[in-house]
Amino acid sequence: MESEQRRPSTVIVSERSVRVWDVPTRLFHWLTVVLVIGAYVTQRLNWIDLHVRIGETLLALVLFRLLWGCFGSETARFRSFVASPAAALAHLRRVLRREPDVQVGHNAAGGWMVLLLIALLLVETLSGIYVYNDVADEGPLSEIVPAPVANAISSLHALGWDLLLAAVVLHVCAIAVYAIAKGHHLVGPMISGRKRLPSTVRAPSRAPLWLAALLLGCAALVVAALATWL
């Protein structure tokens, strides 16, 4: 008796739209983009007062993001996307491999890029407030800081800006590579907050908006104090 030839079965995976990014995370992302561009323009045009106000706003956003990374929604929390260096390197080895995008939040390499950008923004904004207060003779602490330290902070502010711009360029290039090589479009979900994922993937939990407002208020108060005393 002739045996039947088996045909390979096709597994159809159903998908659904999942909200992966909450409103506070998306607002932080796009406001930071706008403010960094504003900081660059005002620095080039020597609009120092406006440049400082932008820097203070950026610092408040960065402090908020640090708090949101501890107490916010699941995909915004550092513990959910900061992987080991080995995991990040393993992910980068597959960066040119075309494969389905089933990542809920930041991937292993992207998580480290987020940390780098936040760290550079924090250093740049903090040093910028000190430099402005030192030059304008406004900050009480600027009077007691030794001249070599003050000069080092000024140099750090200049170097930090160059490093920040380089990191931003790297970030944009990585987004382009993911779109072209892997077919993963990262910008759309950061705008809409939603992403099509397999129906078996659990939707991440979200923190309430009132908590985001509270944390932003705390960050603003800290910036106000730093702008007064640095």
TrEMBL record:
<feature type="transmembrane region" description="Helical">
    <location>
        <begin position="208"/>
        <end position="229"/>
    </location>
</feature>
<dbReference type="Pfam" id="PF01292">
    <property type="entry name" value="Ni_hydr_CYTB"/>
</dbReference>
<dbReference type="GO" id="GO:0022904">
    <property type="term" value="P:respiratory electron transport chain"/>
</dbReference>
<feature type="transmembrane region" description="Helical">
    <location>
        <begin position="163"/>
        <end position="187"/>
    </location>
</feature>
<dbReference type="GO" id="GO:0009055">
    <property type="term" value="F:electron transfer activity"/>
</dbReference>
<keyword id="KW-1003">Cell membrane</keyword>
<dbReference type="GO" id="GO:0020037">
    <property type="term" value="F:heme binding"/>
</dbReference>
<dbReference type="InterPro" id="IPR051542">
    <property type="entry name" value="Hydrogenase_cytochrome"/>
</dbReference>
<feature type="domain" description="Cytochrome b561 bacterial/Ni-hydrogenase">
    <location>
        <begin position="20"/>
        <end position="193"/>
    </location>
</feature>
<protein>
    <submittedName>
        <fullName>Cytochrome b</fullName>
    </submittedName>
</protein>
<dbReference type="InterPro" id="IPR011577">
    <property type="entry name" value="Cyt_b561_bac/Ni-Hgenase"/>
</dbReference>
<dbReference type="GO" id="GO:0005886">
    <property type="term" value="C:plasma membrane"/>
</dbReference>
<keyword id="KW-1133">Transmembrane helix</keyword>
<feature type="transmembrane region" description="Helical">
    <location>
        <begin position="108"/>
        <end position="132"/>
    </location>
</feature>
<keyword id="KW-0812">Transmembrane</keyword>
<keyword id="KW-0472">Membrane</keyword>
<dbReference type="InterPro" id="IPR016174">
    <property type="entry name" value="Di-haem_cyt_TM"/>
</dbReference>
